[in-house]
Amino acid sequence: MMMHRILVVAVLYSSVAVASAADSIMAIHRTNADNYKDRALAACLAVAYQGSQAGEDADITKSVFLEWTYYDEDKGNQATDQLVEKYLSRNYSTPVEGYAKAEFRLLKCLDMYHSQDLNEQVRKYVPHPNWIGDKPLEQKGK
Question: Does the pLDDT at position 90 exceed 50?
């Protein structure tokens, strides 16, 4: 009977741990390269939907990535802003017949996210792309 109670408590505890883990922010466990790209996507969505609740949320999300990503902020942020402008200014007026009035802002941001342009920025501005966390630990002797 005692063993049964211990087992029930253990199952309940693990269920709570799993539930709380499911609600935690996952970005802190992704690489700097992934977070740089995710930040760029958030930046694009913030501009694409500026003035709306979605745009505000994307702008806040973009900012919070500064806490979880180690990269050259001065050059990287400027390059990302330019890339966002480049992709959002694309003319996708009729990529598929029947959608002539669509602006395809989300599609433009997704195309930017998957672009070679953004991959090149990761190579240029993210010195430790595979690192998980804000800043790699300093190596001894340097």
Answer: yes
Q: What is the pLDDT of residues 19-62, one digit of tens each?
A: 445 678 888 899 999 999 999 999 999 999 999 999 999 999 99
Q: What are the distances in angstroms from CA 127 to CA 10, 57, 113?
A: 43, 28, 19
Tell me how far apart the alpha carbons of residues 30 and 133 are, in angstroms, rounded to a whole number: 8
CA distance 40 to 76: 9
CATH topology of domain 29-124: Four Helix Bundle (Hemerythrin (Met), subunit A) (1.20.120)
Buried b (16+ CB within 10 A) or exposed e, 41-79: bbbbbbbbbeeeeeeeebbebbeebeebbbbeeeebbeb
